[in-house]
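Here is one chain, start to finish.
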Amino acid sequence: MEQLTPKEWAEGQLKRAPSFGIGVGVVTLFLIISAFIEYSAALSRAELEPMVADIMEEAPPKLEEIKKEIDPDEPELKEMEDVPEVDDANAVPVDAPLDDVTLDIAFTEDATSDVSEPTDPFPMTNQMAVIGTSPGTGGFRGTLGARSPGGKRSAAGKFGMPGGTNTAILWGLRWLKNAQEPDGSWNPLRWPGGSNAVRPGPGVSGLALLAFLGYGCTDRHSSGPLGEFAGTVRKAVEYLVQHQTAEGKFPEFTISGGQKVPPAAEQQMYGQGICTMALAEACAMGIGRYGYGTSGVNNERLKQAAQAGMAYIVSQQGPGGGFGYWGARNDCSVTAFQIQAIKAARTAGLQVSQAAIDKTENYLRRSLMPDGSSPYRVPPTDGSGWGWIHQDGQRLAMNAEVAHAWSWHRCSVSMTAAMLTGRLFMGHKPTSPECTGQVKWLVDKDYWRVGNRAKDLYSIYYLCLSMFQMGGKYWDKWNEAFNQPLRRKQVKKGHMKGSWPFKDTAWGSAGGRVYTTAMACLCLEVYFRYMPSYR
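Its structure:
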């Protein structure tokens, strides 16, 4: 056998198995690359290890050295002192269950949702506005935003609504529902105020409707606490629209021997402002959006009625911006309701002329006395200043109209609160000199005592609106003063359960139990009826 050299043997193997050579080459190449990587890694470790060693060898500073670095002027923290217990029967403990504070409100919607859905009771429209601004913004999430179930929950906690308030409102609304006439109106003579001076015209019906609207009731709820009032709201709206004249007027009347009799003319404008305000709010809340009833009252028809009511108000406004019982004059009480109607109309996106706004502002200026108060009737626009007759630079006497105003009501808490409400609703800031001046006068007169007595619902109503809009310490003081005394007077049992008595109540003899119950509900709804303008 021929002896082969190693070289000859290797060449023979390669010829016989080419794949073997290829494999060897690949393995060789892999070994070369691996060696290069290992060599590079070794270099990296050699460079980095000294740095790592230096870091690890550095010992942490001692606590004493750190203390020396602290600023010696830094104040020391003292141990927390025990908080003294609050001796207040009305105080709500911080660990109280939510039921004791706000959960007497029954909610049918997600309280955390602000998304407008097809079932939203107040769908957004491009005509809704925030009180104090021009039309076009806000709406359900603006001025009226807290009337939704979720909004009421939030407002109850935020503005300190005591537990039991919602229950009182529901009781009141249920009594009003049962007291409603088949035609949708309310007749105070059935629930008398003690005399035939009770006026059963549209005004008191508009006031009752406002109590339902203030709670967020519409015509579309089918379940929950709001659903039981849907028919009440629908009938009340239909009644007001059907009893409005072609010129937009809501005529008042009395009843004598079962017959409607036109009353003294001076009652006209009170009802006009109240009814127009109610229809404007109903329009802004989307009532009648889907149409209902045989009267053809849908949201568009409702808007027309509210606009006509507003047009009639503007037509009756005096040159000085004020209103009287039957038209143009200078009565703060009557004018205050027209201002609320104007703001409700703007909230609904209705037309209110700039001239009417300017005249209203002029009236507010004229109603402000030098000490911050407001009288029942302001001086006429006859150039006699504050009503004093001057001769040769000497102040002699007051003219007859102003003398009458001062001799009757003069400057009162109710009129000052009404005009302060008007300023805030017209967009005046709570920090403006006019507003702070008026609230200072009210503070000096111990305004909160009116709430403690719980007798003058008219004054309580305007103090609720104005103090809520002022906010801060003024609202806190008022909230503490009025809520419990007012709820305490509510009838708790019997067939009058839920109503407020008219006896021993200011103006109860004129409006009867319907008036007192509607006004009390509106006062207790202050926490969510209108969003505060200072936000």
